């Protein structure tokens, strides 16, 4: 059969296999992290977080239409998420399709002379290479994860694959007329891909190298110049097009509006007209002068900009004031901040500070603008400055890697680099962090997960038991300081991501690399360029600080894609060996078969369980459970992605509880987000605030310090109305400001003692906020103390909202997600009441000790919490065929802990039967398979003991103790110098066992308590150094952690 037909057919077959895999393992609804946001924004074309992905949103919206029902008109739908997730599966399958054709392109060049048709043996091994490499990437850890959820990385990978394939197609026809049309297509793909993710731009240097090797005589100097040209083109697109077009447009808009008195947008439109005019002239001039290269270059720029123009969707939809409107890019100024990711800050790359550097001055040349209309005229008002610290002299360093000055990050630097307090880091320390953390832990580890093996999916920070890459070869892993990886606790060995690949994909890839470089060095250089720019170069550019909130392997998917090319080409080397014993097609088929079994089949076998999400609905159920707990028209404070985005999804797409206003405290420090609280969203009313717009815009209220000003005359015991304090902190009265050393005058917080208006006990009962029986044990005097010495804008916003709600008579229920940071409650902890898994802020607090058996803060509404929990669903946690990764398990921790607190409160009220039913509900809903019994299950076991269920308490205790013993035995197998790295875990397991023994003893199970104690005594001598300081006993359920 003709090569082209076979190549096309088998490419589509490989893509179809990938599509089947991804559809079969795809999550049917919303996932954690950004997926809830992307789903919500796609379904109604809303505006996601910067720098946005407008083309991705439009593509998702197209797929959503096919979900049927109300999807066409954007009505409520329970099927749209499945359809949108399917887009990622389709994009990923197409990625595999183009990867297959990329591999066969290189394989053919290695085996067949140009212009010749491959013979049967050559055809078989070329197709085998494509099949092995394509399927290896199909089942690779990072790519498979993104292929089954509504994230940008699957579509971004598709653009990477088709762009790289397109330049290889150009290479095949470069001598033909009109071949440069492929280059124009590549430019268009690059422009489009910018509106999905910027990662695709990293293909540009490889594209430049293909162009150079095909069009020019190859020399060392030429190769270097081609590389520099590729980097230059990358910089031109990244900065010249993506950033400077909107930057210059914004400058024109300010000039035309403020200088010439014209309306908003006129300056931007004028600048865009200039750009269009210059490009049209470039086409006309190059065609007139027959300058083919210039003509092609101008066409490429035009098509990049056409693709980039998808961003107009973000501007248009932002002006529609959609419910989700991140950064509010509805004008040239805010749009510039949007594409520049101003929300996330900037990190230095080539020059900048170390963590202990002191800045010399603050650059205030960048201005903050706000649109206004005065006397019927548009105007941009300066409302502050963008303050950028400037480091000079020896305070600025070349290639700064240890740059972050946030407290926890500084501590990490010091710990990793063994720096004493006050000890200055050196350039060698900087490089040690670069190679040891950024290159090794934050890149190479991710790469090796895919092609060597993965220890588990527990996020770690250089510790030997969490998140490392492994090989599955015991001696090798132990040599790397990981101990006996098969002797770890159930949480590690039964972790679905405990995948052993025995280096086989890695070895085959190295063989392919060697084979290609030996026979086609130029092609090897092209692939190596792709590998570098999509791997190590990203690590250099991102310059990641430590303690990232999640694993960042998705950022490096491009290098695992590139390595899959070499995995495919490795089949050719294996075939050469086989041909010595089995000639012809038999050897080709045998080598392909062996490689298929050794690599993709092995990968599919060990990784299917942790990538199969087909029955998992936990993010959806958590959102449903959370919103179900809230009263009508409530305000709910959340924190971060996983507490917020699933809630957005279930409101925006499924239409559930759209009356609740969700406030993400992570965004409350940003003006545009506070602005949006002033408007009604869906069925949720605007949020009451003491603030007016001028009080928080720009630099106002960015940071307020507490200052006990003697001129104000407040006593230490005096409590002030919070609404008055909020007004005072924004006042221009001289008494409301204090001078600084720099000559500035700043507002301050005059007291940390606040009170807010409450209700009488009769009104509390009348309004359903308390029962008649409760009134005997409550205090309605709502006084509280702010717990910090300063407040950021987000803190002040929360205080403003509390003050305004109280001022309006507590008509608006206020809730806090139980996962918020302690400081986010503003000091109101005593007035919080747990209802299910959320806290409700009440205008009273309990004094009866019976009511104080509570989780960390406030009290528990046992009746409501019991009823809520009995109706909760756990996203498939009741099944034994669903795997839950770490972010999912975090949610299970919340349910286990809260259930134990509520059960203990029920026991204290004499309701032991309800307590046991509640615990049984959670145990059935979160099985041992879904989340093994670790220290979090201790609280359930202790609650069983307190409820009098000694048998259930002991059964659970035995499993927890067995797990702790296994972990301690593994820790004992470590070399002494590695034991210190797991000191926390060692102490934690002893704490758990000690606490379980205590619970068993005080519940009358003295025999088993003694058994646990004896077990601890036997293993304790292995950890003398780690247990020098007595660790505190683990907290009892219901007590403060």
Integer-rounded radius of gyration: 31 Å
The separation of the N and C termini measures 70 Å
The shape, in one word, is: globular
Mean pLDDT: 92
Helix segment tally: 39
Low-confidence stretches: 1030-1041
How is the main sheet built? 6 strands, mixed
The amount of beta strand, in percent, is: 5-15%
Number of strands: 21
Strand order of the largest sheet: 8-7-17-19-18-21
Annotate the secondary structure layout.
Layout: H1 3-25, H2 35-43, H3 54-65, H4 80-111, H5 120-138, H6 141-147, H7 152-173, H8 181-194, H9 204-215, H10 220-241, H11 244-259, H12 266-288, H13 292-308, H14 312-319, H15 332-339, E1 351-352, E2 361-374, E3 377-390, E4 397-398, H16 407-417, H17 427-451, E5 453-454, H18 474-479, H19 490-493, E6 499-500, H20 504-519, H21 521-533, H22 536-542, H23 557-579, H24 585-611, H25 618-628, E7 635-638, H26 640-652, E8 661-664, H27 671-676, H28 693-696, E9 703-706, E10 720-721, H29 722-728, E11 737-739, E12 745-749, E13 753-755, H30 761-766, E14 778-779, E15 783-785, E16 790-792, H31 793-807, E17 814-817, E18 832-835, E19 838-841, E20 845-846, E21 859-860, H32 862-871, H33 886-908, H34 912-925, H35 935-946, H36 950-972, H37 976-979, H38 983-1002, H39 1006-1019
């Amino acid at each position: 059969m003709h090569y082209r037909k076979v190549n096309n057919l088998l490419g589509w077959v490989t893509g179809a296999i990938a599509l089947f895999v991804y559809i079969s393992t795809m999550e049917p609804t919303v996932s954690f992290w950004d997926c809830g946001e992307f789903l919500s924004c796609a379904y109604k074309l809303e505006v996601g977080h910067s720098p946005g992905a407008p083309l991705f949103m439009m593509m998702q919206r197209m797929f959503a239409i096919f979900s049927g029902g109300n999807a066409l008109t954007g009505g409520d739908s329970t099927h749209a998420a499945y359809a949108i997730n399917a887009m990622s599966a389709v994009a990923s399958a197409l990625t595999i399709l183009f990867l297959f054709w990329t591999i066969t392109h290189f394989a053919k060049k290695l085996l067949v002379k140009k212009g010749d048709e491959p013979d049967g043996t050559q055809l078989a091994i070329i197709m085998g290479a494509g099949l092995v490499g394509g399927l290896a990437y199909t089942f690779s850890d990072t790519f498979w994860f993104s292929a089954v959820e509504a994230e940008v990385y699957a579509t971004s990978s598709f653009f990477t694959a088709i762009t790289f394939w397109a330049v290889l197609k150009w290479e095949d026809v470069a001598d033909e007329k009109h071949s440069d049309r492929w280059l124009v297509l590549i430019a268009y793909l690059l422009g489009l891909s910018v509106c999905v993710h910027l990662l695709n731009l990293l293909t540009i240097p490889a594209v430049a190298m293909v162009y150079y090797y095909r069009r020019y005589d190859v020399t060392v100097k030429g190769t270097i110049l081609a590389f520099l040209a590729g980097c230059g083109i990358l910089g031109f697109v990244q900065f010249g097009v993506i950033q400077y077009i909107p930057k210059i447009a914004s400058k024109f808009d300010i000039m035309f509006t403020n200088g010439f008195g014209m309306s908003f947008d006129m300056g931007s439109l004028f600048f865009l007209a200039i750009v269009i005019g210059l490009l049209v002239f470039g086409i006309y001039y190059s065609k007139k002068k027959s300058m083919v290269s210039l003509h092609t270059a101008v066409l490429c720029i035009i098509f990049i900009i056409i693709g980039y123009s998808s961003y107009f969707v973000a501007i248009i939809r932002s002006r529609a004031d959609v419910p989700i409107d991140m950064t509010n890019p509805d004008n040239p100024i805010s749009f510039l901040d949007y594409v520049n990711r101003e929300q996330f800050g900037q990190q230095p790359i080539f020059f900048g500070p170390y963590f202990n550097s002191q800045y010399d001055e603050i650059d205030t040349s960048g201005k903050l603008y706000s649109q206004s209309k005065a006397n019927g005229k548009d105007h941009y008002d300066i409302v502050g400055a963008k303050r950028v610290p400037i480091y000079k002299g020896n305070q600025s360093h070349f290639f700064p890697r240890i740059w972050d000055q946030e407290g926890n990050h500084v501590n990490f630097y010091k710990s990793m680099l063994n720096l004493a307090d006050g000890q200055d880091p050196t350039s060698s320390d900087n490089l040690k962090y670069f190679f040891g953390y950024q290159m090794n832990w934050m890149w190479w580890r991710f790469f090796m997960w895919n092609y060597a093996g993965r220890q588990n999916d527990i996020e770690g920070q250089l510790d030997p038991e969490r998140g490392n890459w492994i090989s599955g070869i015991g001696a090798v892993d132990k040599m790397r300081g990981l101990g006996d990886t098969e002797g770890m606790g159930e949480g590690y060995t039964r972790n679905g991501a405990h995948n052993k690949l025995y280096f086989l994909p890695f070895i085959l890839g190295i063989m392919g690399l060697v084979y290609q470089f030996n026979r086609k060095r130029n092609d090897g250089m092209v692939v190596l360029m792709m590998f570098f720019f999509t791997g190590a170069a990203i690590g250099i550019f991102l310059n990641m600080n430590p303690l990232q909130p999640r694993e960042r392997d998705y950022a490096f998917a491009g290098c695992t894609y590139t390595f899959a090319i070499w995995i495919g080409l490795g089949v050719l080397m294996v075939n050469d060996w086989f041909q010595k014993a089995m000639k012809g097609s038999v050897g080709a088929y045998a080598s392909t078969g062996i490689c298929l079994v050794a690599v993709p089949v092995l990968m599919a076998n060990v990784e299917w369980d942790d990538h199969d999400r087909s029955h998992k609905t936990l993010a959806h159920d958590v959102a449903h459970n959370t919103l179900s707990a809230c009263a009508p028209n409530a305000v709910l404070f959340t924190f971060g992605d996983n507490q917020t985005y699933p809630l957005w999804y279930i409101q925006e797409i499924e239409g559930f509880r759209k009356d609740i206003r969700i406030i993400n405290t992570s965004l409350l420090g940003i003006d545009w987000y506070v602005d949006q609280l002033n408007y009604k969203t869906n069925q949720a009313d605007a949020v009451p605030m003491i603030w007016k717009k001028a009080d928080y815009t720009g630099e106002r209220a960015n940071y307020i310090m507490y200052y006990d000003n003697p001129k104000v005359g407040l006593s230490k015991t005096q409590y002030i109305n919070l609404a008055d304090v909020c007004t005072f902190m924004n006042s221009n009265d001289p008494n409301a400001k204090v001078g600084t050393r720099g000559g500035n005058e700043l507002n301050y917080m005059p007291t940390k003692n606040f009170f807010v208006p409450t209700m009488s006990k009769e009104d509390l009962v009348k309004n359903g906020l308390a029962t008649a029986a409760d009134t005997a044990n409550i205090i309605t005097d709502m006084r509280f103390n702010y717990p910090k010495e300063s407040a950021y804008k987000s803190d002040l916003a929360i205080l403003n909202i509390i003050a305004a709600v109280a001022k309006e008579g507590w008509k608006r229920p206020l809730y806090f997600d139980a996962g918020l940071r302690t400081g986010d409650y503003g000091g109101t902890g005593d007035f919080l009441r747990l209802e299910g898994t959320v806290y409700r802020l009440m205008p009273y607090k309990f004094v009866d000790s019976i009511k104080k058996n509570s989780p960390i803060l406030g009290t528990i509404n046992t009746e409501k919490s019991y009823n809520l929990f009995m109706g909760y669903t756990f996203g498939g946690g009741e099944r034994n065929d669903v795997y839950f990764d770490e972010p999912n398990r975090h949610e299970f921790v919340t349910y286990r802990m809260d259930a134990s607190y509520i059960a203990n409160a029920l026991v204290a009220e004499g309701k032991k039967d309800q307590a046991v039913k509640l615990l049984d509900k959670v145990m059935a809903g979160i099985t041992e398979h879904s989340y093994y019994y670790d220290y979090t299950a201790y609280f359930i076991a202790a609650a069983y003991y307190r409820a009098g269920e000694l048998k259930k308490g002991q059964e659970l205790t035995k499993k927890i103790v067995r797990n702790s013993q296994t972990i301690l035995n593994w820790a004992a197998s470590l070399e002494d110098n590695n034991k210190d790295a797991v000191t926390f875990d060692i102490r934690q397991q002893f704490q758990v066992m000690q606490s379980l023994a205590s619970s068993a003893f005080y519940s009358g199970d003295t025999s088993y308590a003694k058994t646990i104690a004896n077990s601890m005594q036997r293993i304790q001598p292995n950890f003398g150094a780690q247990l020098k300081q007595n660790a505190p006993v683990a907290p009892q359920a219901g007590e403060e952690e």
